[in-house]
Amino acid sequence: MMNWQNIRVRIVPAALGAHAGLAGPFTRMTFSKYEPLVWVAAENSSLFIESADAVEGYGRLVRALDETSWDEEESRSLLVRECDDL
C-alpha cells in the first residue's frame, strides 16, 4: 500500500487532541478533465458534493490536516512498528 502512487498515508497524532479530521471521513477527488468533487460517507448514506465553494472548504480541511499530520515516512514507521507488535 505504501508504494501506490495515487495514495498517501499520513497519520495525525492522537496526542494533538481535537483536529480537523474528526469531522468524519471524506474523499476529495480531482480529475484531469472534470471539476473536483468530494464524497462523504455516512452510516446509512453517502453524498457527492460538487459545489465549488463546498469542495474548496474540504480543500482547506485537507491543508489543515497536512499541517498537523506526520510526514509519509514517520507515518509508515509507526504502522510498521504497530504491525511488528501484533
Name the features.
3 strands; DUF5753; three-stranded antiparallel sheet; alpha+beta; 86 residues; DUF5753 domain-containing protein; 2 helices
Low-confidence stretches: none
Provide the β-strand percentage band. Answer: 15-25%
The average pLDDT value, as a whole number, equals 90
How large is the radius of gyration? 15 Å
SSE order:
EEEHH
Task: Give the CA-based shape.
Answer: globular
For the record, give the distance between the C-alpha atoms at the N and C termini, rounded to a whole number. Answer: 18 Å
Helix-residue proportion: 25-40%
Widest beta sheet: strand line-up: 1-2-3
- What's the story with the biggest beta sheet? 3 strands, antiparallel
Q: Helix/strand/pairing class, anyone?
A: alpha+beta
Strand segment count: 3
SS field, number of helical segments:
2
Our count of domains comes out at: 1
Explained architecture:
With 86 residues, the protein is α+β, with helices and mostly antiparallel strands. It has one domain (20-84). 35% of the residues lie in helices and 15% in strands. It has helices at 52-68, 72-84; strands spanning 26-29, 37-41, 46-49. The chain has a 3-stranded antiparallel β-sheet, covered by helices on one side. The chain is globular. It starts with 25 loop residues before the first strand and ends with a helix. 2% of the residues are buried. The mean pLDDT is 90. Residues 1-79 form the DUF5753 domain.
